[in-house]
Amino acid sequence: MENETLTDIHSAADIVTARQRGRALALELGFSGGDVTLIAAAISEVARNIVDHAKQGRIVMRRINEKGDPGIQIIATDEGPGIPDVAQAMQYGYSTRKGLGVGLPGAKWLMDEFDIVSRVGRGTTVIMKKWLS
Hints:
Elements: E1 4-9, H1 12-29, H2 33-54, E2 57-66, E3 69-78, H3 86-89, H4 103-110, E4 113-119, E5 123-131
Antiparallel strand pairs: 1-2, 2-3, 3-5, 4-5
């Protein structure tokens, strides 16, 4: 698909690559510097979760247009252990790795739309969208 970028995520270096590709696509789409930074931060959060919990996965970024509104869509998928309690994982301050607990809730806060589907033993998919205002 045109304007679609796939990044396989296995390591910290891949997180950097995904973040850079997300920034480049956001700039290409006309996002402002502040929004570009928010998009890159959200990509970092979901990519870090892939590395820490699933060991490997992928992030697909694409240009979207719904009802004349352009934007960016980021889909992060893995086939890791899944999240037993998504509601708990989405609470600020909850952390499985002694971190700040801003990963998934932080990514949700940074983006305009955020959806997560996780099945224990099957993996997790996060779909995020940011609209060009």
